[in-house]
Specification:
It contains 12 helices and 10 strands. By secondary structure, the protein is an alpha/beta fold. It has 2 domains: 229 residues, Spore Coat Polysaccharide Biosynthesis Protein SpsA, Chain A; 97 residues, no CATH class.
Amino acid sequence: MITTSDVNGWYQEWIPPVEASGARPRWSVMIPTYHCAIYLRSTLESVLSQDPGSDAMQIDVVDDCSTLDDPRAVVEEIGRGRVTFFRQPRNVGHVANFNTCLRRSRGDLVHILHGDDCVAPGFYATMQRIFDDHPEIGAAFCQHIVMDEAGHWIALAELEAHAGGPIADWLERIATGPRLQPPAMVVRRSVYEALGGFDRRITAYGEDWEMWVRIASRYTVWYEPTALALYRVRTHSLARQSTRTGANMHDMATVIDIIQGYVPLALRSDVVHTARTVGALGALRRAHRLLGAGDRLATFAQAREAVRFSRSPEVLLRAGYLSLRLVTSWFRPLARWVGMSSRADKPGWR
């Protein structure tokens, strides 16, 4: 077994095996929460509507000491004793909270479902059938849907394959950039026991990406081309907050440094170059969306980090275009103010 010290120093917490004390559930649905109780009702309802019973599924909400809402009340109302609630004694940060989820899990299959995401009908039955039929795989994920704060569907993830099955070149694909969202992924607990938990060096963005690359470097991963998971985009989520300072790009750089060790040496240089280019282009796309929403400071932070991240011709060209948009957005209010002032100086202006 690989201990924490065997995997990137002491940054990846060892996940101890479940003590042998009777039958274990097939599933552990672990739901980390932090200031998202408003969405937790939908999350729990989407799971409980597929509940095979307490003998087959553990459902556990793990709260990172929320102070702005009351997830326990939601669990008591919706869970009705079926859902376990655990509250951290202090705020430990989302990565440590995810690792608490892993340590508390008892099932053979672990599904970390963020407290603002959901699963579609058939998720657990479909994913369990895949693991039952293919004992050689370590993890499996499905296509996912992106929804907004109100639960409206706004995007569908790109298909990785048109038919279900293992992805032969998955390590090379996933190492070049995040290609899925956490609610779509299910992992055997034995894999976490062997590889360790989420990396503590990553503080705001990309801890899941690092984990998926780590798993792909050691295990076969299955893809199900059916949209059975729903990922929510929120204005005030941790990921959104990190974009305002550029912290998300700093974490992405850390992830790329870490995952180099998971990629064969012959592919490492190309993978790193592609990952940095993909990351920079992603930052520029975010910057355009942020500018459209009127958040110029976040736009500037993402544009600045994109150029620092990669100096590829495509990145520089798109950054230049974004700079023109940003400058124009700053001068447009000034131009309106100047126009109003000049009209106000004219006789008869009211």
